[in-house]
Amino acid sequence: MEEILLNLSNNIPNMKLAIHHREESFSTRWISYCEREGIEYLLVDCFDTDIISKLLKHQVTHLMWHFNHASSRDLQVFPYVFNSVKNLNIKTYPNFETRWHFDDKIAQKYLLESIGAPLVKSTVFYNQAKARLYVDSARYPIVAKLRRGAGAANVELLNNRKEANEYIKKMFTSGRNPISGNLENLDQKLRIAKRIKNPIILLQKISKYLVKNRRERNITNLEIGYVYFQEFLSMNDFDTRIIVIGDIAFGIRRFNRKDDFRASGSGKLDFNASAIDTNMVSIAFDVSQKLKAQCLAYDFVYKDRQPQIIEVCFGFSMLAYDACEGYWDKDLNFIKGPFNPQDFMIREFIGNRNKEIPFN
What we know:
By secondary structure, this protein is α+β, with helices and mostly antiparallel strands. The protein contains eleven helices and 16 strands. Strands 10, 11, 12, 13, 14, 15 and 16 form a seven-stranded antiparallel sheet that branches. Strands 1-3-2-4-5 form a five-stranded mixed sheet, with helices on both faces. A four-stranded antiparallel sheet has the order 6-9-7-8, with helices on both faces.
């Protein structure tokens, strides 16, 4: 994609913004914000071999990219580009503190432990013998996860030592592909398909998905040589997703799938803000501040009535949160009404904080 410079009025002095655009990603709203506010921006393709020279050529000072956890290409390339442009004094969104652990639950384990965050008890082994010793005396069931995956993909409940040892053997021999097969998470895929009423569009999307899924499974490295376990916390019929962007937080509750312990990807969403535990909001603000993160989504459950973090992530579904009733500020005051999370992202990033944030 050729870089496209859009010249608009009312630019912020000494700032030149570049955006890597992907359809149906945060960049759609970032671009809308720039056009609405008259901010000059440059569309770039971070996969271009000469991306560095292009950023230099246009004297870019700020670079934004909403990378996709389901894209092996994104996961491979974003560290190359973003870590390198630091030498050009280019600010990035997400910044290093927000992105380095992206789609890596093991990295998140170490990170959250380092600041004393209330993380669900998590254990990782890189040695098969030690893993087998652990499951010999484990309290079942236990939750097994791959490093990668969202929407509860690659998450299993191991009910006994036999299942645990079979899981360990596979992870230390043949490994597992983190990209789900066509029939995995079928309930979630069927739910999404039912929303598409036009049969022609549905067939087009199915065809596109099958091609993309096969390509991803072929090029993605296997997850092998480790096991990652989390304590199973019963009596949780839902989890709570709290997203912190700068000085605001918002959230939803996600109820478990039928006859399943997993809530992520269930589609059973509750937007009632009064039902959300503000202790979780407070914890999320505190963790984001300690990590110096620009934007993180936290998944919470309870242990003995105390909030525990399951995992964190920079990215989230853009449209799913449009139905939120409002957001909290850092003092836990709730501001009721529709809002645009992606506008908050770009406003904080480029220092345009005095602008009102309308909802698109």
